[in-house]
Amino acid sequence: MRALICGSLAFDNIMVFEDEFANHILPEQIHKLNISFMVPTLSRVFGGVAGNIAYNLKMIGGTPVPMGVVGSDFDVYGQRLKSLGISLEAVKTKEGHFTPQAYITTDLKNNQITAFHPGAMNFSHENHVKDYADISIGIVGPDGRDGMIQHAQEFADSGIPFI
After folding, report:
1. pTM
2. From CA 18, how far away is CA 105, in angstroms rounded?
3. Predicted confidence band at 33 (pLDDT cuts at 50, 70, 90)?
4. Spatial contact of 120 and 127, defined as CB atoms under 8 Å apart
5. What domains are there in the chain, each with its CATH number?
């Protein structure tokens, strides 16, 4: 059973600030915030809703087909998915754009500050459910706004059950 998983394929850049944000963000000066945090460690992991669901579905024996739009920097992520036997037939590359990226800084109290760049994800509406054969079920996950609406409608129109 092939599952078409619409959503983001993203890089998560994770950093740990070895203190508490509260020790550096002054409430009385929040209206003029200009702050920098030294983060001695940085890890980059493969993420995004379509990527995460596809990975986990594959690990339990499913046949995921992630559908998303990525940037020209996607190669290393794409190679990882291919090495796991996950199809990239529904992953489109938008040249001149970045793959979606989250930059997550966590402090010692597990508070987080996150910046997210959607990049190529904003073009998710350029991908269509009808372009992929033998799809039994679909998932519409967080993605570009227009793409999410369009993909839900396309699943409904084609009679493919989806969540």
Report:
1. 0.91
2. 10
3. confident
4. no
5. 2-158 (3.40.1190.20)
